[in-house]
Amino acid sequence: MNQEPNPASDAIGRLVQEFSKLPGIGPKSAQRITFYLLRSSEEEAAALAEALLSLKQRINLCSLCCNVTELDPCPICRNPQRETSQVCIVEQPQDVIALEHTGVYKGLYHVLHGAISPTEGIGADDIRISELLSRLQNNTVQEVILATNTNLEGEQTAMYLSRVITPLNIKVTRLARGLPFGTELEYADDVTLTRALEGRQEF
Description:
Elements: H1 7-20, H2 27-39, H3 42-58, E1 60-61, E2 68-69, H4 75-78, E3 83-90, H5 93-102, E4 107-111, H6 129-135, E5 143-146, H7 152-165, E6 171-174, H8 190-198, E7 201-202
Parallel strand pairs: 3-4, 3-5, 5-6
Antiparallel strand pairs: 1-2, 6-7
Helix pairs in contact: 1-2, 5-8
């Protein structure tokens, strides 16, 4: 005799599958999170669901630096205390958080939302380079700091950016090699990032 499908099992399986899509979350971790939520109160589950929806509905990109923000321009771009002659180029929004945590850098940022990677079919037109070049036309930026990751894709992106920015008569620097090759910026510690910023060199 065929058994009717268990809707509870279907719901659990679906949530496990969705959590498994998250970076760093394997099937076992996804299962643990799912059953934790199953045991939690309806209010806690609703708060999580509301936070997820709010994230998608309220977060946009800053029209100046392309960082994620609820307000446009973002708080960093609107801050009159920031040094507007410097722009630090990073790959992802979480890199801004890592650099801000050091308390050393006082300039502005530009978030590319990726890196050039021919093997994955990602070219210069697929990341926020055109927005960056538009920003650099106003003649207020004197230094661009390349803070892309120290891996193959980050190096390719830095090389490309150097080629297109240098003709604009803007100083191009690169974070110092206190960052080992292959390190992603968001995982570097504060001391390493501080030394990399302070020891940056012309590219």
